[in-house]
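task queued by scheduler; priority normal; single chain, no ligands, no partner chains; default sampling; output format set to structure tokens
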Amino acid sequence: MKILPQLGERSKTGLVLNNMAIDFTNEGKIDRGEQLYRLAKSHFEQAGDKHNTATALGNIADIVYMRGNLAEAEKLYNQSLEIDASLDRHEPGYILYRSADLKLTRGYVRDAHSLAQQAIDAMPAQGGSEGLTEAMLELGDILRVEGNLAGARQQIQQVLAVRQKTGEMGGIEEAQAESAQLALDEGHPAEAESLLRSAITEFENEKSDPAAAAAYAGLSQALLAQGKLDEARKAIQREHTDEQQPRSGVEIACCCPTRARGSSGRSKNDEIRRPCGCDPTIAFRGRVCQKVGLLPDRMRSAACVGGGRDKD
């Protein structure tokens, strides 16, 4: 590792550091991960590697967003997009969808809708279905907040169809949980219960305690709506049990910018604000359930040529 900078291999050094940062972050060592992302960014900048500078900026922004510093995260996402726009080969899809998620968190629904649609339009040219379905789920969220439940359901059903076809690991139950939240919004708690029980089974098989905890929170709502008080109480107990499971050494405290989901209260600027309540029902998806200290499902690997996507 030390010899690469000595040989002037700044870009390759940044590549190694960025991918080390992903490993540390996945282990829950968030502080170390952020430190390495920033080092990687420095090496990319010194090498004049704009593509991977944009990648590192996006990964730093994801961590800053998770910590609750929304203004700084937005600034970093915008810097990443500006660099990407200056390149011959554009790959803005991931950052656009993350920016849409942040805008929705801040309550700027119209801006979020525009960014999510831009992300969906950009994704097919970048290849792969995972990023596209993430952006489609984001748009589904936004449509639900806008009150367009039929449009939200269409988005989620399309995501389910793609993920069932590709067998995307963890993706089917994620979309099921989204469908369940929509069913609750539509007043169909029995349908939500069925979807959530299926998703919980898979989350627990994958040892995904945070995702299971959030799903149990939704399940308790569905059961309460049906008057199943004893079962709802048990679901709440399971939610708290899963919340208390170890998080692989996650080093951060809760800092949850709560999502404006399904609210009808809007200001003249179409802005919806809610105080931080650390409520796991605000989001079933791992990438936005900041209460349990989760980063997005997809951190981005740098690459010396044509980066910006995960690599096996």
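post-processing summary
- Confidence is low (pLDDT under 50) at residues 246-295, 303-312.
- The radius of gyration is 19 Å.
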